[in-house]
Write a sequence for this structure.
């Protein structure tokens, strides 16, 4: 306990240097601008910034990326409130009450509430990160190939189930496609090259960064440029700094949303958007004034913004302890950590325990910077909102080319970016979620290696996959998740519960 | 140029990753249902192809590896899984498919939005495959940015502004971006450029 506090203190002190603070300031401002600009998402920002931070010291590079990530998720709420367009997918729930508040002449109040609730959400997530991550890392040391196989499969399945907006089938398909991409190149058990078709560049497999730059960069540019119209910015005439009472009268909502966001963040591959929507739905259900939701409810806005920011901090829990990305942006962070020689996973707490607390310190500094800039630079951010996307997107594409080329300095990676951009755009247009695809690419090797290694250990006997307690538990959850995504099964199960609840009063 | 704000977040393109809590009305879009049917067939074909290549993949018998650890094992399972999911999607789409869905899909494919997407793609392909590597990176980028801005603010704009103003802005941003990226990445952050 005290060791943790000492490490946390050291983590904060580690970044309280001129270089650290300078990186916090510019990266947070850049993240805020990325979040504010419609068409630029947090994942895209982090993926593009990996290149820029390539030559930086590892701790400063991750600090920069973390500030961009958190800044973008928070910054998107500005666009949601003023334009009724979520700046990033995470802020979609914030449009429901944020924009009506702005139309009522309370744009400043809405921005102030969004800012403070984002900070509080991050703090709740940080609290759980500091508590749960060391425990989970210790527990994960007991995991073997069997558990890691199921965990990898669980990540892809649950991500597919929860992010498939049209049907879970599309989420599963996206996940399988991601896993297939990961099968390309040399496999790690027997060093055999799969699906390379004689192309030497494919031997090393598809790198995550160019794929992400394509799927989140070029695909987003195509989606943004497809639209012709531009929304109108709501005017800001009232105060931005909220009164303490305006925030803390909803303390229950804040804590509840923070916990929901944390829970969603811990689930691999389920991003900030799910955290925001789940918190919003729970707040509406528990609210004394649910009729105000969707018409400018301050509670609704607070719930949405607390929920999505809590996900950011909590997504670091599986990311750091199990190397299972808690969100799409966290997948890029894993790739960035690998590039900088930091190996996330159960061994992190043994090999590099201070790093976990450095991440906590990074999040603390980033959220503090968000709070300060969010409450003070309102006019500047409104100016950013009015940047024409025709001028912006062209420059962003140039950055996509630089971002995909720079890490391994191969034009092949630029072509990978192009292919993923085009395919990603088509899939997005057809409502296939991107998160399971990304998770599949990240977890494919883990899944493949651990399945075959587990089978090799038992001479082909799959029994331990089903009989070891943790393996069996994860297996049951996966089966239940898949079963519940079948409409006939889920309807029947729900009706069983409803009937059960309906019977209870009759019996009493 | 003004447009009424979207009625719900579902209507914006930013929410493509939105989860189930949003009431999804996409299921009733005939163009998407037909497109789903076509992609489902593509996925079935891909799944079968991956399963076939995995089945025929070298099983490394000469190295005497255990048969349950052959390299093609996981890709084979994935191929089967994709075929299964593709088939389920095809059945779902065929059940929801309505009269006129094909025409609706064609309308989407030949819409003004599709033209804008194709122009962006065309410019991106010419820049990436044609210009980059054949001239200094800053010049290739400046040419791309200039063409992009000029096209989208004149020919492809709903309400084009003054041509002179557009050309001036396009030149300034193109040179600023080209030289700026070259300097910031190449000189300050020491990143190699294409």
């Amino acid at each position: 306990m005290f060791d943790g506090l000492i490490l946390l203190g050291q983590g904060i002190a580690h970044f309280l240097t001129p270089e650290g603070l300078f990186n916090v300031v510019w990266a947070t401002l850049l993240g805020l601008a990325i979040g504010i600009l419609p068409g630029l998402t947090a994942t895209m920002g982090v993926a593009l910034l990996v290149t820029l931070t390539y030559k930086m010291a590892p701790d400063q590079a991750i600090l920069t990326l973390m500030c961009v990530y958190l800044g973008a998720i928070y910054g998107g709420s500005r666009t949601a409130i003023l334009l009724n367009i979520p700046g990033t997918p995470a802020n979609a729930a914030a449009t429901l009450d944020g924009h009506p508040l702005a139309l009522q002449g309370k744009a400043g109040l809405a921005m102030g509430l969004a800012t403070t609730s984002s900070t509080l959400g991050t703090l709740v997530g940080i609290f759980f990160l500091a508590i749960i991550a060391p425990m989970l890392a210790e527990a994960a040391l007991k995991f073997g190939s069997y558990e890691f196989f199921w965990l990898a499969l669980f990540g892809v399945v649950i991500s597919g189930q929860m992010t498939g907006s049209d049907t879970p089938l599309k989420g599963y398909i996206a996940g399988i496609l991601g896993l297939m991409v990961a099968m390309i190149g040399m496999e790690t058990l027997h060093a055999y090259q799969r699906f390379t078709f004689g192309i030497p560049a494919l031997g090393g497999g598809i790198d995550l960064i160019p794929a992400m730059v394509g799927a989140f960069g070029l695909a987003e540019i195509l989606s943004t440029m497809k639209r012709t119209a531009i929304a109108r910015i709501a005017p800001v005439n009232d105060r931005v700094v909220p009164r303490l009472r305006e925030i803390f009268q909803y303390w229950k909502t804040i804590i509840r949303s923070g916990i929901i966001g944390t829970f969603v963040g811990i689930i691999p591959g389920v991003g900030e958007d799910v955290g925001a929507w789940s918190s919003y739905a729970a707040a509406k259900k528990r609210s004394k004034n649910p009729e105000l939701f969707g018409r400018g409810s301050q509670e609704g806005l607070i719930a949405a913004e607390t929920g999505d920011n809590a996900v950011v901090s909590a997504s670091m829990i599986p990311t750091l302890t199990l190397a299972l990305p808690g969100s799409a942006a966290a997948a890029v962070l894993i790739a960035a950590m690998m590039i900088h020689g930091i190996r996330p996973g159960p061994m992190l707490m043994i090999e590099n325990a201070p790093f976990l607390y450095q991440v906590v310190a990074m999040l603390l500094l980033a959220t503090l910077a968000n709070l300060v800039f969010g409450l003070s630079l309102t006019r500047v951010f409104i100016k950013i909102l009015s940047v024409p996307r025709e001028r912006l997107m062209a420059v962003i594409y140039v950055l996509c080319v630089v971002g995909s080329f720079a890490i391994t300095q191969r034009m092949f990676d630029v072509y990978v970016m192009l292919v993923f951009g085009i395919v990603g755009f088509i899939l997005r247009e057809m409502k296939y979620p991107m998160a399971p695809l990304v998770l599949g690419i990240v977890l494919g090797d883990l899944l493949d290696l651990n399945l075959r290694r587990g089978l090799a250990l038992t001479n082909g006997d799959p029994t331990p996959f089903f009989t070891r307690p943790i393996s069996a538990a994860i297996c049951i959850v996966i089966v239940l998740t898949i079963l519940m995504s079948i409409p006939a099964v889920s309807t029947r199960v729900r009706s069983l519960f409803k009937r059960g609840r309906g019977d209870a009063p009759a019996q009493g | 140029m003004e447009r009424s704000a979207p009625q719900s977040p579902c209507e914006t393109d930013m929410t493509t990753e939105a989860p189930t809590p949003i009431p999804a009305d996409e299921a009733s879009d005939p163009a998407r249902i037909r497109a789903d049917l076509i992609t489902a067939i593509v996925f079935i074909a891909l799944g079968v192809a991956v399963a076939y290549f995995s089945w025929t993949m070298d099983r490394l018998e000469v190295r005497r590896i255990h048969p349950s650890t052959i390299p093609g094992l996981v890709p084979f399972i994935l191929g089967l899984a994709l075929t299964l999911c593709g088939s389920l999607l095809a059945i779902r789409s065929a059940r929801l498919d309505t009269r006129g869905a094909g025409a609706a899909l064609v309308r989407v494919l030949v819409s003004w939005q599709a033209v804008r997407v194709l122009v962006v793609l065309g410019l991106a392909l010419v820049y990436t495959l044609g210009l980059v590597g054949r001239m200094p990176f800053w010049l290739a980028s400046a040419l791309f940015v200039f063409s992009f801005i000029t096209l989208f603010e004149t020919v492809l704009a709903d309400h084009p502004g003054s041509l002179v103003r557009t050309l001036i802005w396009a030149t300034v941003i193109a040179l600023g971006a080209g030289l700026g990226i070259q300097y910031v990445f190449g000189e300050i952050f020491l990143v190699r450029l294409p």
The mean pLDDT of chain A is 90. Chain A has 24 helices and two strands. The CA atoms of residues 214 and 418 of chain A lie 6 Å apart.
